[in-house]
Amino acid sequence: LYFSRDTYSEKLYIDEPVGTPLLYVHALQDARGEVPHFRLGQHLYSTYRSQPHKNDWFQINEDTGLLYLNQSLDQRALEKLSARNGGFPLLTIYLQVFLSPKPLRESDCHWPSCAKVMLSVINTTMPACSSLKPREFCFLETGLSFRIRENKPPGTFHQFRLLPVQHLCPNISISYQLLGEEALPFYSDKDTMEVNMRHSLDREEKEKYELIAKCTVWEGLREEVVMVPFPVTVYDEDDSPPNFPNGINTANAVVEYKRKEGTVLAVLQVFDADVVPSSVDIPRKYIHTMLTSDPLVNEFFRVEHSPNETSYNSNGSRVRAMMHDYKLVLNRSLPITESHSFQLGVLVNDTDYQGPGGVLHLYFNVTILPVSIRFPNISYSFSVNRNAHRYAQIGKVCIENCKEFHGVNITYKLQSLSVNCTALGIITTPESTTGNLFVNDTSMLQRPECTGMKYLVIASDRQSKKQSRTTSTISVEGNFFPEEEGCPISCAVNKRRSECEECGGLGTLMGTCQWRQGDGKGISKNYSTCTPSLKTCPDGNCDAVESRDLHICPQDCIRGDIIGGHERGEWRGIKAGYGVCNCFPEKKKCFCEPDDDKEPLCDEVCR
Amino acid sequence: GPRRAKLDCHLRTELVRVHELGLGHDSDELIRFQYCSGACPKVRSNHDITLAHLLRTGRLRLPTQPGRGSVRVLSHPCCRPTAYKAVSFMDVSNTWRTVDSLSAAACGCLG
Amino acid sequence: GPRRAKLDCHLRTELVRVHELGLGHDSDELIRFQYCSGACPKVRSNHDITLAHLLRTGRLRLPTQPGRGSVRVLSHPCCRPTAYKAVSFMDVSNTWRTVDSLSAAACGCLG
Amino acid sequence: MDSMSTGTCINAKTLCLEDFTCSTSFLFLETCFPFTVSATQKPENQEDCLKAAQQLQNNSLSTCRCLWRMKNQDNCLAIYWTIHSPYGFGHYDLGGSPYKEIVINKPWKFNHLDLLESGSVSQSSPDLCLKSTTLCTLNDKCNKLRLAYGEVCSVARCQPLKCQQELRVFFEQVADHYAQALLFCPCDDGDDACGARRRNTFAPSCASPTRDPHNCLMLWNMCLQDLLCRSRLADFQMHCIHMDPLVTCVGTQLHRCLKAYMGLIGTVMTPNYISNLSTEVAVGCSCRGSGNQLEECKHIQDSFSRNPCLTKAIKTQMQFYHQRLSKSSPPAISQE
Q1: What is the ipTM of this complex?
Q2: CB proximity list for B57: less than 8 A, separation 6 or greater
Q3: What φ, ψ does residue D193 adopt, rounded to 5°?
Q4: Cβ–Cβ below 8 Å for B96 and D200
Q5: In whole angstroms, what is the distance from residue A229 CA to residue A146 CA?
Q6: Partners of chain A (3+ Cβ pairs below 8 A)
Q7: What's the distance, CA D264 to chain centroid?
Q8: Is-contact B109 B9, C-beta < 8 A?
Q9: Does the distance separating the beta carbons of A602 and B67 come in below 8 Å?
Q10: Residue A287 host element (H or E)
Q11: Which of B57, B71, B77 sits opposite C37 (nearest CB)?
């Protein structure tokens, strides 16, 4: 049994006579043959629930659910009740009506087996019938709303008459109806003014009925019509088995270059027309298990379940449902040598659904392809200027499909094949599995006899020890010219174009720093600065070479103080700066300020 | 006396709009910018007395800085902040921003 | 780099005759008088950048000091001695004299 | 025990512990509700908890309250909920508010308003939200408290919990009319800049980031687990919803509802304007995945976004500040 509403309300005037009927509560059956017995809570409550008061004034008919005045509420009684309302004027009296035969604990009143009754107290006697407006005969201001469980026997869930006012003004003629009720699963009885269900409801067909209740009042010849919303919410039951939207229960998953933990390999969807269990209870109620005993599968794969509420159209209205995504995810990085194919079954069990078909099987056809480490069959050739400073980035080497690789630990090494001249080093950029060639020893470059270099480049996978080799030839160009005396070792120190271009610094390709002229519009990503190489710095990325030494590109790598108008990069570096940004790596500090901010004039301090 | 005290190194407050700070932030919000100013009593150290004298008599020739006037020499302690505080405000895109050590919190005669 | 560092706050030396010190000693002996001077660009804070900007744009009106122009405001740390040392010499009556804390021994950007 | 806590639950508990029967009931009740740190285990039988609570019905404990700005407010609230938790009307009706009624309309005045109006502090745009921000900056306490939350809520240094905490401190310590001037400053229709300032002035992107909004029922449960949030929610429910079932929204009740609304700022149930150009407010949560509790979920949303009394209270307050902050405002009047 369940109440058709979670809260009932009515107006209560002072000194209404004993026996005045107040309202009907209604209960609907969960199963045919159930007979409701209504019981009133012993106490009535005001705003502060901790101050309950013995209920001497209200009684309920156990069978009909009629709540009525057992004793008239006079001014004195009202004051007694108000005294326990924490100093607030008593506006509302709360009662509790229980349904279940065995008495529930009084303080635990919530739908479906307990309903709240809210009586709005009006501190005057009932006004004369003639002074009441038609609306006051028809409906209350607090509004109507009803709850009906799907698949349950039909029954009476409301009666329209406002009992107190019609009891005290019996000669008012009034009628109620639901607009367009002919086409609805509800009908109102002209005599009893009750609202009934024609048949049980199916939420998956329609879950909300936004009806309109119409009341017509006649006073002599004058007729007055009042209309109010009459919403009915259909409550869900887990009565629909899960199924596969468009019938697909199998998906292929190929593991090739993307072998990193967390990679989503395939997704299968399960549709459930019900919205129970709700998203809070789903983890407990919607269980999935991988049907495999293969330790490799359990170690390297997992299935992630993410339920999302969705909705579908059912003859003109939207009905909520649940779409469950099951993702096959790599649980650990897979070695590149691994090669294997198998079918993984996943059992999905909607434990809330009692009928057949509550259990489904998903199938992932998994193919793990081995991946080889191979250089494209070309040999690399680069050139380097004799005036290049240490950490100048000469070029990048990359095994085949290196951009595709994820979760594979490739490292690059160099072996010199030339005797008199070896100046380069190599660093691996993990994310993009590329090798960055850079100048590591400038003294070699300055020797006239050093005109070219040859290297063996070796790429190897740390886990499987697989390797691939290629050669790289480097030509040395340009004539060496000694650098301007007194230049800083970091290009970033320079604050003006003139200073910048007359000096070199770590990371410079041709021995001179490059000036980037910003747009000068407030704090901007395009700030002015002096850089060893416009190609790599500043680009918002403190790359593998730059992170070797803060002097190379502090603009991208600084973690310390940035003074002046700026915006810090998410992890490090200057994302945006105002005017010119220059840095002092040894102090781990950068400044961003407009160039016209020359040193302040020698103010009167100098006198 | 009190009149004299007003001239001594102490904290001053100026109501400044954020876009006037010269940091590139754009906002009409007012902030309380505090700074230190005022005289520092001459500490009669032998060094300062001699330095002031050499400066006054022109005996000390100061090398000039290209384009920036003569190099600065101080013959007495300077009135500078001894503590700073951050200032926060909402910029024109209504994002809350904080600038560290923007305002002086206390002043002192240093050096 | 080293070429520009010369402008930064550092120790300078001047050969001065004792009688030019202005301390009332009379001797023709030369002494090495050391003092601090130079800029402190690397130690400035947001406060300094803003203060310099407000001063330059005239947004900060400084109350004037009777007889000594506008009140002193420094928009950068001051280059001052952080250690001193005594200097000795023979005066005209050939007596050895020592003047404490006459010469700067080390410099720093303060405030 | 300081004067502030006389007549509060702290005082009532001290008296109760001096009486044997009262203290046995109360100490047992403390085990029923894990609000107090000391309570560890929970008795299985809730019946005993209700009996213990009923024994205290005539004790001062069952009518004690707490004060908005009292010291050790958390202790007081813990005592209140120890007494009142057994009596709930179900999960979504928290009964009365733990906060004692407060006299509101002390005459107040914005200092420096004359300074602003005389134009000596140049005011380029007449946007009243910027003006109320300036008024706060010109008031020492308001400026200090505003910078305090501003710093921990600003971009690149946002710490959500600290941000929420400093916001609460701001509302608890700053004079109401300064806080309300920032929160309920009026904007001309279509003035997006003014509305954006009003909507972001309490750093919602840091205090309550709504990337994937919680379900409102979950948010409600999270709030109920937190002593302060539960108390502010009960206060809001009482003064903005239950106090007026016939939806009359009369007189001082409006002002008390605004006080309750502001009390929620800085908790997980922080409400805010729904857009720059609207004065409608909402709490940042959705009703997706509510299952059969869609009505309860919608009720939580509607208590902010479809609450006629709250909407009327906010509009009235904006009209008041429009009059107070616009140029031709009369001298300070106490606000009824």
Answers
A1: 0.85
A2: C20, C22
A3: -60, -45
A4: yes
A5: 11
A6: B, C, D
A7: 3
A8: yes
A9: no
A10: strand A286-291
A11: B71
